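Intended use. Records such as the Aldo/keto reductase entry shown here are meant for training and evaluating sequence-to-structure methods. They are not intended to support clinical decisions.
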Amino acid sequence: MRYRPLGTLSVSEVALGSWLTTTRDRQGSVDTLVRTALDLGINLFDTADSYEDAQEALGVALRATPRDDYLISTKVFYPYPGGVGGLSREHIRASVRRSLRQLGVEHLDLLSAHRFDDTVPLHETIDAFAELVDEGTVRHYGVSEWTAAQITEACRVAEEIGAPPPVANQPQYNVVWRVPEGEVVPACQRLGLGLVAFWPLAQGILTDKYRPGRPPPERSRGATDLGRETMGALMHDVVLDRVELFGRLAARRGLTAAQLAIAWVLDRPGVTATVVGASRPEQLRENVGGVGVRLDASTMARIDKIFTGLVHDDVTATG
């Protein structure tokens, strides 16, 4: 494993996410995944207050691990049971109290605004994050899927009120979704925010397990109702044909398609780490194989050629 700086933190280049795969009803599998992650050198575990009972399951899985051996990243914005959502001071503080309790920890290493809230003054949101940092309850804060203008304004507000600035941005970013490159990446580089990219495998599309002209494999995300909803834009033969070529390119370089996709993200300017999801230890081991892979210019050019016409890079696009 390799590590990169994020604020005062040293984070593993691959982080383990908990959306959909970390639940109390499969605690045994979660425990195994977390142990595997730690054995592989992963020290960053990403979750959110709105991921059903993911925080509780993650907290149980990490209970026997010394607190200094791992970092917790969670997010606030969406309503959870009993919560109203948003980025008001009241909701942020209530969410943090709930997250600390569910995770069984005394502090959060990174707290991110899951989305932007245009109903609450940005000064209030930034001041609430700053108070938590000052108290030691949160070590750093960041944002997720904010625009370049929103990130820039957050940093301006932080400077204006004497608050620490955000240190991280979590955008969707992968070979076919390059929207951040237009404005967000340059803004983050200029302002000193590290990118912690999610969906590097495009929810599994870039693993090359979905074949053109065939139904999704049983028990895969693409075979579920949620998968059909969130992956529908890419689950077409014209895309899967290109992914098949991507897989062949990876094989010629001694990699799996997933490893090449992760290596591509980690090779992009401004990226600090990427968040992967996994339901089995072997998936996690495979993903970590993308760490430390250097892609030469010819490989990058070939990747661009494979996905010509399919790349989403319009800054007005939404995920």
